[in-house]
UniProtKB/TrEMBL annotation:
Protein's UniProt name: Uncharacterized protein
Swiss-Prot/TrEMBL keywords: Membrane, Transmembrane, Transmembrane helix
Transmembrane segments annotated in the record for this chain: 7-28, 34-52, 79-97, 109-128
Superkingdom classification of source: Bacteria
UniProt KW Transmembrane helix keyword: yes
Length: 133
């Protein structure tokens, strides 16, 4: 198993930190208007990374590896796909079994754990994977 640390760092900074901030703000300020700056940030990040990827190698890395879905576990193989789904359902089952989804902090923690797991799986390459290219 190999973890791409650079992709993990950029994913954490560009995608996971805004989700954490949005989720924490959603607890304190229960308003749908908070979603608008988050969506605008994601759209601007996608557009800028695409436009600047032609000139800057760092933006090309961000666009190709962090923003795109080429490392999506659903596209990488049946073993990875089913392990990915089973672990996500295991996290959901644990939160349902212990009644953590009944209150707002529990739902927020579940949301952040699940998104952290999803972003982390993009950065992992397993030894048995057949990498093309």
């Amino acid at each position: 198993m190999k973890i791409d640390k650079q992709m993990l760092l950029w994913t954490f900074i560009l995608l996971y930190v805004p989700i954490i901030l949005y989720s924490i703000m959603q607890i304190f300020v229960n308003s749908a208007l908070l979603f608008i700056p988050f969506v605008i940030y994601m759209i601007v990040l996608s557009i800028l990374s695409k436009v600047l990827s032609k000139n800057n190698y760092k933006m090309k890395f961000i666009y190709n590896d962090v923003i795109s879905s080429k490392n999506d576990p659903m596209n990488r193989g049946s073993i990875i796909k089913w392990i990915y789904i089973l672990i996500a359902f295991l996290i959901l089952f644990i939160f349902i079994f212990f009644d953590f989804l009944d209150d707002e902090p529990g739902r927020t923690i579940f949301y952040l754990l699940l998104f952290g797991y999803i972003f982390f799986m993009h950065c992992i390459t397993f030894n048995f994977e057949n990498k093309k290219g």
